[in-house]
Here is the input.
Amino acid sequence: MNDAPYVLRTDTGAVATLTLNRGERFNALSEEMLAQLSAAFKEIADDQAVRVVVLAANGKAFCAGHDLKQMQESPTEKYYKDLFQQCSKLMLAIQKLPQPVIARVHGLATAAGCQLVAMCDLAVASEQARFAVSGINVGLFCATPAVALSRNVSRKQAMEMLLTGDFIDAQTALQRGLVNRVVSADELDATVNELAASIIAKPALAISMGKQLFYKQLEMGVEAAYQLAGQTMACNMMDASAQEGVQAFIEKRVPAWGK
Here is the structure.
C-alpha cells in the first residue's frame, strides 16, 4: 500500500504547484486522486496569496486517465455515473478557479488525462509528451474528454482522435491548439515559470475577471457575449489597478500596482 498523498502541494511565492503523486499507476484518476485534487483546488480558490496554479505530475506519465482496474471492481451504472460526475466537477472547478492553471506535461496524457490538459487554461509540453483519447481502444468512447477536447481543437481533429484512439505527439498537439508551447525536458520548468511570472505581473482582479468572462462568453451567442464583455470591461475599468494602468500609459511610466 502506498500511503503517500495522491496530490502534493508546494508553494513558491505566488505560484502553487499541485503534483499528481501516483507515478507507479501513471497518475490514474482514481476516486482518491479525484477527491484529493478537487480538495486542493477548492483550498486554492480561497487563497488570495496564490496567483497561478501549476498542475504537474511525478513518474513517467502526466496522467493516463481513469483507473480502469478500480472501475472494473464496481460494474454498476450508478457507480459509473457517480464517478464521471465526480470527474466532471473537478474539470469544471479548474475552469471556475479564479487563478489561471498551467498544465506542465512531461509525459503521456491519455483519455481523462488529455481532458485534464485541455481543461487547464494554459499547457506547456515537453517534446516527449504524447496525447490521446484512447478509450475507444477498449470499446469506450471518451465522451467526457470530448467536451474539453472539442473546445480546444477543431471538430474534425477532435473526432479523428476520438474515433481512432491514436496518439499525437507534442508538436502536433501544439499545431492543433491543445498546448501553448513545446520545449525540451530541460526547459520545461523555466518555460512554465516564465508564463507564471508574466501572469503574476498583472493585476489579480483583471486576471480573474478575464478568465471568468472568457469561458462564459464562449458558450453564448455573439450578441450576448458582447453585452457580457462590455459589462465586464466597465467593471474592470472601475478598479484602481486599471485606472492606474491607464494613467501610467498616458504618462509613459511603469504602473505602480499594489501586490
User: Anything to note?
Assistant: The domain at 204-250 is CATH 1.10.12.10 (Lyase 2-enoyl-coa Hydratase; Chain  A, domain 2). The chain is about 50% helix and 15% strand. The first helix runs from residue 31 to 45. The mean pLDDT is 95.
